[in-house]
């Protein structure tokens, strides 16, 4: 018989009291009678309730019932809250913030929790024999459901429909009544709102709330990726209207409040197809022979006032999203591409960091504040690079300026690496798309001096702004600031990487003080070698993820004790926060409370991860689409992952990654040698190892799931290969005019 709400509340209170009692006395066990005495229980009905309490706690695994019938506290178990990461159909991880290790949960023990749900989990510490293993557990309560909106392809029949989710982390179809399909056609991409979550023996049920279009069409797929990650692709009308109402004229009164730098040579250097220019450099040789270089950033906070509709929408988004073929901006176009964009030959309001350098490249003076500038030229990276590389007679008046800035950037970069900054150059790609958005080519993105020049001055401004605010107040607690932080690598991950690097003959120290120097030595040693990409990729995976915080714990990868994001307020909300805080302190303001800002930092970090996941999903989609458009051919690849179910292989310059399934290695039965990142044939002894160069061909592509199945053809240099057909990479049929779509800006 069920309890009424009052009785249930009383019962829950007893549960907590009893578990607290056992936890305080975790060195001994108690019988039911001893519990009655300990709690001074005399009446029969209350004794029965306490009996129910003990049985409930034992069934939940929070108490252990011994063979003699007594109960004791299970000090090997613990209850925590976390977020479900359903990595495959067999198991999930419960990600617990602040915990060293996630909790492994079998799918059968998820109790109908889904990916993204916040849950309470009963977990058990790993035994001493398995001290390196993760704790295991089971979900005992779903606290909060994740998004109820699911994107996928709908299959419509005369009487009912099913949604096949796009997400790789949702493993069950969703039932949709025929009356709830909202006019969607068979195999359309749609968004379904889950109206009833699944239970044992019953599928989840939902209704179509938006029809995105025909599956496979570029516009449909890009919108579905945004929807899958809960990212908007259009602004509310009231936000657009507010942006449209802003007067573009800069009042003379506003200019008088600022440092007027309109007569100082200024210019931007950006991707060739960029539309939002949020940073510019100025260059001036002073009378004393020193160089004054200004880093000028769009003054977004002048136009986006705290608490306004524009501000609320910008905070909600927190970042611009860079998909393969488009940018979904944080701010409406009037701001991002207009008022705040530092376009050439226009007066613009900026927030600046101005540095005076002596001939040795040492900063002798710095200034921070609001300015007004006038950009004299807009350079594409390629144009700036041409000036850097030019060796003949000077024909462009700005060539000496660009070369001078580049020489100083090299000095700044050398000093940064000397102080422990880690030199990672991660592989990036760009796509050539035809007019229908189909990929006709994939190219590796090459970073040259022009890219590194801009990056170096942005890093300098970000570092010095953070340091300035931190040092304004010499005693703790310091002034509250929004920092970009990056912890040192996890020691366990570092040890695993060090062990793996040794297999290639390289030494990587695990001593905290020497890790960055060791990593740089490794990157230099492997440059141009076959194992470069593999070791570099694994080294990146070893690193922690950068995030935003009000805790000044430093940035390990850059070796900066204090680092902020100041240079991209058009596309990152934390930069807007940094501008506001800096101006507040320049005006003599006192430090605000940290707690509200820390919440904003956490939100911005979470949104950045979503945007990054969506960006990767769009890249993966185009890679799969690109491979699907090619006739079968043999590709050179590198093994980049070794698992119990197969080998992940990355294909040459395209960076397309596919899976060679274990079941398709039909020449033998293979065992996984997890510690050595390899699989070994039981009979023939053939070995496939992480980092091996192999030859593969495409077996199958699945655009809906964004996966590529590969077939192993042979090891590179092994002679003839099966089906060794022409290796020409012809343009697929139907490809017409093309456009080059670059990736978004790098994140630090």
**Helical coverage, percent range:** 25-40%
Strand order of the largest sheet: 14-21-20-17-16-15-22
Which class do the helix and strand fractions yield? alpha+beta
The backbone outline, from C-alpha atoms, is globular
List low-pLDDT spans. Answer: 715-747
Number of H/I helices:
17
Say what oligomer this is. single chain
Number of strands: 35
Largest sheet: 7 strands, mixed
Radius of gyration: 30 Å
Distance between the termini: 59 Å
Task: Report on the architecture of this protein.
This protein has 748 residues and is of the alpha+beta class. 30% of the residues lie in helices and 27% in strands. The strands form 9 sheets. Strands 14-21-20-17-16-15-22 form a 7-stranded mixed beta sheet. It is globular and about 95 Å long.
Descriptive keywords:
single chain; alpha+beta; seven-stranded mixed sheet; five-stranded antiparallel sheet; 17 helices; disordered C terminus
Offer a quick outline of the entry.
With 748 residues, the chain is α+β, with helices and mostly antiparallel strands. It has 17 helices and 35 strands. The protein has a 7-stranded mixed beta sheet. The protein has a 5-stranded antiparallel beta sheet with strand order 6-5-4-7-8, with no helix packed on it. A 5-stranded antiparallel beta sheet has the order 11-10-9-12-13.
Question: How would the blueprint of this fold be written?
Answer:
Layout: H1 5-24, E1 29-30, H2 32-38, H3 44-59, E2 63-65, E3 71-73, E4 77-85, E5 91-95, E6 103-106, E7 118-124, E8 136-144, E9 149-156, E10 160-165, E11 174-177, E12 188-196, E13 205-214, H4 218-228, H5 237-244, H6 252-256, E14 259-260, E15 266-270, E16 279-285, E17 291-298, H7 300-303, H8 309-317, E18 321-322, E19 327-328, H9 333-339, E20 347-357, E21 363-374, E22 377-380, H10 381-389, H11 399-418, E23 429-434, E24 439-444, H12 449-472, E25 483-485, H13 491-502, H14 515-526, H15 532-542, E26 547-549, H16 573-586, H17 594-628, E27 635-643, E28 646-651, E29 656-661, E30 670-673, E31 678-681, E32 687-689, E33 693-702, E34 707-715, E35 738-741
Parallel strand pairs: 14-21, 15-22
Antiparallel strand pairs: 1-3, 2-3, 4-5, 4-7, 5-6, 7-8, 9-10, 9-12, 10-11, 12-13, 15-16, 16-17, 17-20, 18-19, 20-21, 23-24, 23-35, 25-26, 27-28, 27-33, 28-29, 30-31, 31-32, 33-34
Helix pairs in contact: 1-3, 11-12, 13-15
